[in-house]
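Can't paste images in this forum, so I'm doing it all in text. The chain is below; anyone willing to post the predicted structure tokens underneath?
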Amino acid sequence: MIQLFKDVRIDWLANRRIFIIISVGLMLAGLISAIGRQAIPGGTDAFNLGVDFKGGTVTTVRFKQRPSAEEVRAALRRAGANDAVIQPVTDKEDVHLIKLPRFENNTANAEQQEQSGVDPGRAKVVEALKSFGPEVTQGENLPPQGNSFRIESTEAVGAVAGEALRNQAVTVTLLALVGILAYIAMRFEWTYGAAAVIAVFHDVLVTLGFFSIFQWEISLTVIAALLTLIGFSVNDTIVVFDRIRENLRLNRRESLYNITNDSINQTLSRTVITSGLVLLSVIAMVLFGGEVLRGFSLALLIGIIFGTYSSIAIASPIMVWWQQRLETGAPRTAPLRTNAATATRRATVAAQSAASRNRPTATRS
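Text version of the structure:
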């Protein structure tokens, strides 16, 4: 494999307190944002949930001459729908899928529409799209000249369905973490599995914190990104843990502190190459993926950065601390690192012991 870094001797564990302070600070910022937004009178929700979770309207629109997604989004913003998601249908060149969050009926006009059986979300779409041309009713053909549109279908996602989807997303994420814990516990030890799961929780919470602070929309594609992030982060952590296990077998007299540092340094090239290539692809999605992939790509971008970081700065220090605690039976007050004087003294004692064992003994005549 290509080695970007050779003979790396970074003492990662010496900075473990700094790493933990950074991680705790990021998670606290997300927690304060989530709680503060709900505590302030008239504030927003902790997270900007999309149509999939808080309900809304999904409208399928066919155009005579389909405008671009940005043009439709701009028209909807002028009509007061700021959180619309426009998705062009790839296999139909004249159809757009428009998702609107649940429309708050604050105007008398909207109340009259709701009482008359007209979906407020559909009415908002029709109002916005009239800037492109007249509406053609269902069953009529689009006129050959000029631009026009027809509402093919309108589906309402209620709050009950949104709550069910939200609960299923949380359940799937927790089951994935339980499966990861069981797998790593069988392959290594349960302390390794616990450290990996804590690191994954860290990655998910930090990512959700960014979504709360900046109020990026959370949809089912974001949940898919979080599950992808879980797999990516655990895979990176397992590579480091596997090298630690190999080095423990080869260097039985070496301290776990030094072996962990050496293992992280030995796998650093692989980590940078793998994460760097994935990061380039995700940055391309963030810049050129458009609004439909914005939440998915942002979640992956933050998750990959902190997933790589947690494999080095969170999972490994937690595993070392936990393993040392189990071996000693009590928390260690002394540093885990073996200093140079102690290492020299141990080597001298070991050499003297080996020499005494090899020294010939006199026999009685």
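The chain has twelve helices and six strands. Strands lie at 48-49, 56-63, 85-88, 95-101, 149-157, 217-218.
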